[in-house]
Amino acid sequence: MADRGSALWPPTSACPGSRDFNAQFAANALGAERLIDLATRYGTDRLGEAMTELIAYSERRMRREIAALPDGTWHGEDAVDDDGIHDEPLPVRVAITIDGDQIEADFAGTAGQVTRNLNSPLSSTASATYAAIKATLTSPDIPFNHGMTQPVTLRVPYPSLLNPQPPAPVHARMEACYRVFNAVMKALAGAVPERVIACGYDTTTALTMTRFDGRHYEVVTEVLGGGYGASANSDGESALSSPLANCTNTPVEALDLDYSFFRLRAWALRTDSGGAGRHRGGLEYDRVYEVLEPGSTLTLYADRFRLAPAGLFGGHEGTRASCRVERNGRIIDVASKDMMPLEVGDVVTIRTGGGAGYGVPDGRDPDMVDDDLGEGYVSIHRARRHHAWHGAAMEGR
Fold first, then answer.
1. In whole angstroms, what is the distance from residue 331 CA to residue 187 CA?
2. What is the Cα–Cα distance from 290 to 346, expressed in whole angstroms?
3. DSSP letters of 6-47?
4. How many beta carbons lie within 10 A of that of residue 332, not counting itself?
5. DSSP run (H or E) holding 62
6. Are 297 and 207 in contact (CB under 8 A)?
7. CA atoms of 262 and 251, how far apart (whole Å)
8. What is the residue extent of each domain of the chain?
């Protein structure tokens, strides 16, 4: 065994994740130390009172924001592409009711529990619901704590995709959670159209490549970003981690240093991948890998390969994600939840999906179209087709 810091790892195993774990352990230890320091400085009674007041403050602010909205019931729906076994979408349906200073989210009509690990525990379903409601209805300065959840009532069928009966596989829950976020956002569009965003790529596009040479086992996993949906005020952002995640992109240089069995051949935004609208959806990107050594395997966990992100108020849908392997001049399509062995020379291309547009494309400011053309975000063909714009500035671009 080899001693790597405070942890012991077999000499034949690469464990780059140990650094992440150690960072989390250190952060947790520092947090505990500072909490003890606060209790020592101010006393446990006073500290407890401050914590209680902070929770009450969040609830008061949340109720005040909700009370300012119109009462009513609005519906939203989205779906996971499939469960990776059966070729059927898994719908997530919600009815959002605002009544005074309270909100109810009723998920009646949502898909039943599945045998694959896509089920979302009730706690995760609740978290995705709270995230959509808070992001839409409140200001960022309201603390995200137990108090802000008090005005929100959830009704989730049991057993179901969003509230499974144990024992249930739940590891890949995030696809269902994203559809909760999207469905709630669509429902809230009826109450506060100026505050919501259209659907984005919104999926955990997790691409894993592994290699075993008989002694060493190498693993690389990337959780890839995509295009956000547009809003009433702006275009969607391009190539970002999804709204419920916190993953950053992996620098190409780091991958080159850490892995020898593949290399990145390309990484670029894809023209015309954001949904057209008065405000355009964010762009996806293409990430292209070339396999250099034998014994490699590709595993993919993703979504939005079949069902594109929906636009709002006349905005066009975003682009679907996809993955393909080019092998000796032949194209092999890879399903969103699949794995396959790779060969030397294979070229893997993942397209992460673009965000949907907001508002009818004819309403887009011509200057914004001109900027899109200059940046390469849209093509001349699309500018002419979707924006009814025929400026001379387009010629020669």
1. 40
2. 6
3. TEEE-TTB--THHHHHHHHHHHHHHHHHHHHHHHHHH-HHHH
4. 12
5. helix 44-67
6. no
7. 14
8. 70-196, 197-397
Instruction: Tell me the C-alpha distance between 93 and 184, whole Å.
Output: 9
Measured from the Cβ of residue 280, the count of other Cβ atoms closer than 10 Å reads: 35
State pLDDT tens for residues 331-343. 999 999 999 999 9
pTM of the predicted model as reported, rounded to 2 decimal places: 0.90
Quote the CA–CA distance of 58 and 141 in Å, as a whole number: 9
d(CA 145, CA 326): 48
Beta carbons of 225 and 242 less than 8 angstroms apart: yes
**Residue 286 neighbours by CB distance under 10 Å:** 15
DSSP 297: E
What six digits make up the tokens of 133?
């409601």
- Furthest-apart CA atoms within the chain: distance in Å: 71
Q: How far apart are CA 43 and CA 308, in angstroms?
A: 54
Q: Which residue has the tokens 């949904």?
A: 275
Are 314 and 360 a contacting pair, CB within 8 Å?
Answer: yes
Residue at token pair 């609830």: 59
User: Which pLDDT tens digit goes with each residue over 273-312?
Assistant: 999 999 999 999 999 999 999 999 999 999 999 999 999 9
DSSP state letter for 20? H
DSSP H or E segment with residue 86: none
Helices (H), 120-217: 122-137, 146-149, 174-188
Which uninterrupted H or E stretch holds 7?
strand 7-9
Exposed (0-12), middle (13-18) or buried (19+): which is 214, by Cβ within 10 Å? exposed
Q: Rounded to an integer, what distance in angstroms lies between the CA atom of residue 105 and that of residue 99?
A: 12
Indicate the length of the chain as a whole number: 397
- Interatomic CA distance for residues 253 and 137, integer angstroms: 40
